[in-house]
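Form 12-C: Joint structure prediction
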Amino acid sequence: MTTRKAATGKAVTYREAVREALREALVADERVFLMGEDVGRYGGALGVSLGLLDEFGPARIRDTPLSESAFVGAGIGAAIAGLRPIVEIMTVNFSLLALDQILNNAATLLHMSGGQVAVPLVIRMSTGAGRQLAAQHSHSLEGYYAHIPGIRVLAPATLEDARYMLAPALSDPDPVVIFEHGSLYNVSGTLPPDTGPVDIDRAAVRRPGTDISLITHGGSLGKALQAAEQLAADHIDAEVVDLRTLRPLDDATVTGSVRRTHRAVVIDEGWRTCGLSAEITARITEQAFYDLDAPVERVCGAEVPVPYARQLEEAALPQPADIVAAARRAVG
Amino acid sequence: MTPRTTAKERRTRTRPPGPDTGHRLGLLKEMLRIRRFEERCVEMYSAGEIRGFVHLCIGEEAVSVGVHQALTPEDAVVTTYREHGHALARGIPAEAVFAEMLGRMTGCSRGRGGSMHLFDADRRFYGGHGIVAGGLPVAAGLALADLLREREQLVCCLFGDGAVAEGEFHETANLAALWDLPLLLVCENNLYAMGTPLAREHAQVDLAARAASYGMVAWAVDGMDVLAVERAARRAAQAVRAGSGPYFLELRTYRFRAHSMYDPDLYRDKAEIERWKQRDPITLLTERMRTENGFDDTSVELLEKEVAEELDRAVEQARQGGLEPAEDLLRFVHSPARGTS
Amino acid sequence: MPALGADMTEGTLLEWLVHPGDQVRKGDIVAVVDTAKAAIEVECFENGTVDRLLVEPGTTMPVGASLAVIGPARPATQTSEPSVPVTSPLVRHLAEESGVDLATVHGTGPGGRITRADVNAEPPSAAPLRTPPAETDTTKPPDTPRVRPEKPPTPPARPGTGDGATRVRATPLAKRLAVEAGIDLAAVAGTGTGGAVRALDVKAALAAALPSAATARPAAATGRHETMRRAVGDLMARSKREIPHYYLSTTVDLGAAIGWLHERNRELPVAERLVPTALLLKAAALAAREVPQLNGFWTDDHFTAAPAVHLGVAVALRGGGLVAPAIHDATDLTLPELMARLRDLVSRARSGRLHRSETTDPTITVTNLGDQGVEAVLGVIYPPQVALVGLGRVVERPWAVDGLLGIRPVVTATLSADHRASDGATGARYLAALDRLLQKPEEL
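Section 2 - Result
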């Protein structure tokens, strides 16, 4: 397998990084198999699993009918029985069809059975807007899942996380939901040398700074980093925190950053009302209130079903300029 | 993965039913045990000892007892919230089920599940599902694991007639048939989805016919005759073990009590209930054994006595179970150690 | 009353299907109960004879209450079990309203049933448990005399923390920093949104107050000094603008006090010797306790007396500026304690390490410029306090006592007071008290 491994220093895309992670998992553990709509012959609706069918065969790269509830539930059952299924759902919007299985079974069975029935299942799905796919393929519903006790929610925003988050997710004895932002698949870059599995308990500071904390995840990380560069030109030194794990939230890293900078902007492509950004903001005020020197600012997706037309879609999403404006308000 | 082994290569692990007195006595005792268990539940519920939702299977004992004759300890069972009978038939001790309903730590789900969520992983009894049809996809997954691991075992999934109206039933039936999963689908058709009669819920009330449309073998069986249920279940199990893919049994039965403890039962005609009581599975088998096995009143009394003694003991034991301290509330939300598998 | 559902806490008996004397068997339906959702049949779990029915149809009973007594299979007989009062829901309601315990009422109705008349004849066993009339209906005269809710006696509104006019708009970090640094937020000009005080502003004020900080960043020192100056200026301007000051002055003979002090100090090591200031402060505090109209706060257009005397002491900071932190409960301190507290307070004020409460809750302030050679201070009141006591230098003056002229140590004590909260006569009583207290130093 080493020959297939992305060579250090060679440019890879996010999509290839996820594929490489899948390949590694399939090679490393016989119990691992991938199932989902069009993951086999088609190569994955987003092209992630292209080539894996030839390599691992139809028993382990399983095309499923368009039955989100049944194949997610089947993943739960197979996980209970000792296998390590990876279930791919095309988009988070479709995952709502399987929400019963994820919430009522995957997240619940261990507790409801008094600790007897663990569900070591990994569910991957794409999320987010930015590709003019309109209102039924574009939403960012990570917050729905981050609400649920009993599951872990990950959002790999970098090539490195895309490549090295799957292994720790598979070794988690409980359900893990991984959100891959649709706009990231074509992002390419140089993968750093294998630094081992990602610590999926911790958020990551992607850019250190002293004046304000930009807290975000997934597809908005790049925008936050761009905003930080613009702010630097104004002599505002922004720290960018990538939440990376949306449940359980790494309070220590977030509040640690805010304690240093005393100001925060929370950026979330999801809707503002009752969303992930609300939770982060609440935790900051709970845990770092006396360190705050300005109200926490939020930059969120507009409260609208994501529209098709490009200019409308752009207006509906957090943009670097919005982040810069919010940061300036906070710094004053 | 290699093709599955053929029927010839498999052994029949359980004995076929016959006029064997010992076997019938076992069936009768098990049904009686479930019936009396359920009656104790009513009493304890009325006294406020048991709370929450409790769904009794009085009248449906032949389903639990008959189907379980065809299962081995290696098989898995997934069922619904009306599962006391299935749990007992599967071998979960009565005291563990009582204790669960009393919210005790000694309950089979440590008091976290209650009546609707009985679990016993060691007996491969995977619940106890409160979402109608929600257990079906999970059962398909358990069966998928058996298939991928080439194991000679099956998953028995029990559900009610109401579940056949759910999308999850149809998704699962399709998936199971498509993938030839070793899944025994048992529809416990008691004619009512809570309060809605079959004909008011299903355009096609022949549920076996609907299952058959997915390309699986499907039968309707008298669910009040435990011997008929056992025969059908054995035949179905044998076929599933032989790699035929999923199998659908519709067991036509009736619950004598209301849907749950909080159901005034206004939607059923008392005369209808009385008619079905004429076909009480316990009476049916008792009468048959009087005719064919020389069974008499003394035998019945002996059985009743044994069952009563067991249940007395079980209730007493259950009442002594400890209560989990509230500090342990968050236990089992996650597995204790991550990364151990 | 059986539990017939997960959410059932009580049920209403609709109908008895059995009568006393009836034989019942396990599984018999004996009654019908209304559970609010539906009428449900009640099943019997005993074999026996219905002895007595304890509850009449129409009665609502909690789950677990006894409905009937089933005895062994024999005819009904009288038993001596305590009976449950039998009555109707209406009567129960009436009893509840009137505070009558039904268990103590003798029923005169059929079968000993308690009637409305029985309840009305009963004196209430306790005060009626009635909620006060709704506040929203202001057109209706209240049933009971309305008492205007008293403001809680403590704590009074304080600068920077309380509500109303004195509330300082500041970020949480700024508030925390101000407390840690011993800076009064009310004296800091805010540069944030809506004039909110931010960390930057507190740091500027602190830098102005602390020469060390100013040294560290000399370039900014002038600006920060100005900020501090402006903050003090703003507060004093507000005081002068809002508070109608009146001023009183008296000269106090300290002969007795100084004499007593010398006697006392002679016995003590140098480090423990008392200075006249301690006596003056203690007397100022005790006098404030005697004249509570001067010890407290003017907020929301009225005066609230403080429950204790937290004596503010004006401390000039090196490098300019002024703070007036409190010596808490100054009236309760012995003179050595008060001395120690004063030293500690001055030292911490000058190093910027005052505690939050010290900066925010003086109830009356003393400013003593005697060590600067000043004879009389006519000070400006710190809002929301209502009085400021000024003490000058202790000087020897020719003084007539009992018709004889002598040289006596004297001090000029002044009072600046808020005319909204008190009048000159009140102020005069304060200065008189101060004088009197200082004549008996051994009691201080």
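Section 3 - Comments
The CA atoms of residues 183 and 246 of chain B lie 5 Å apart. Residues 1-17 of chain B have pLDDT under 50 and may be disordered.
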